[in-house]
Amino acid sequence: MRSLAEPVVRHWDFPRGIASVALLLRFGxxxxxxxEALLDGTEIDAALLADPVAxxxxxxxxxxxxxxxxxxxxxxxxxxxxxxxxxxxxxxYAFLSAATLQDAITTALRYLDLSFAFTAPTAVVDGDxxxxxxxxxxxxxxxATFLVERDLAAIHTVVGELLTGAVPVxxxxxxxxxxxxxxxxxxxxxxxxxxxxxADQSVVDVSVLAEALRLASPETTAVCEAQCxxxxxxxxxxxxxxxxxxxxxESSDRFEEGMPALARALGLSPRTLRRRLATSGxxxxxxxxxxxxxxxxxxxxxxxxxxxxxxERLGFAEAASFGHAFxxxxxxxxxxxxxRAGDQP
Length: 345
Known about the structure:
The protein is an alpha+beta fold. It has helices spanning 19-30, 35-39, 58-71, 76-80, 90-97, 101-110, 141-162, 183-189, 218-236, 238-250, 258-265, 270-279, 284-302, 307-313, 319-330, 334-343; strands at 2-3, 16-17, 55-56, 120-126, 129-135, 169-174, 194-195, 200-205. Strand 4 (120-126) and strand 5 form a beta hairpin. The longest helix has 22 residues, at 141-162. It is elongated.
């Protein structure tokens, strides 16, 4: 047996775009489940839903899935078939423009953390069979079945969009119990799944891997791969978020925007930004102090502005607050520093 590729991220806890949440909210609305019920406990700011490049933490989408699975417990496959290649943004266009299905699967596993998966998929060639398996390890029991069915249905839906003919499915095995209604399963997978098995997997004819995809474009693939790498690196490297926050603070006039506005500018929720910065060993306040301190030194060294004017330029409500902060940064008062700067040639 050989594995086509090992996914970069084995665990589901990675940041993700807002598109999946928006899709699930539309799915819920079609089944008379109000958005308020699905967003309950997610801490997702409704304003983020209007931002197509916004990002959230996995646990926030998981909270929404938990609400949906409680209200529509047998809707995993129905929800999964709503995920199309284009749902995945630039990663989806990398699928569509790939030369073969094997190339598309390899790309999907390489950039798994740009998807919306909660299960960890693997693709293994076993003789004349391609085994697409999902690992539900680490998932809470109350959402595991829903997410396995959602993720597997999404995979089959996207693969079906890539190929010119039907997906040659040989077998589908699922670990959970037989549901009451199998119509969605049979429509999506093309076969009647076996339930109560030892694994969560789909088996297809290996010959499908070499099939040339009808929208193949090496130029588009190269562009999409480059964008996927850039996005993945930004998400994987917390220091990248720190650099972006510094950049935005440096371009701010008087630091009036505040953390929520900064988070929106980065396509993140305030909670997500706070957690990313904490992972980097810093915080918004620490970066704000850092930039204010640097700018305070420049403004005071110029000698043209009063202490009150510098405090205003730095976004402090009053000079006293600036004075307290300056002494914390440098151990002297701004007026004393100002006099020292004036004495320099």
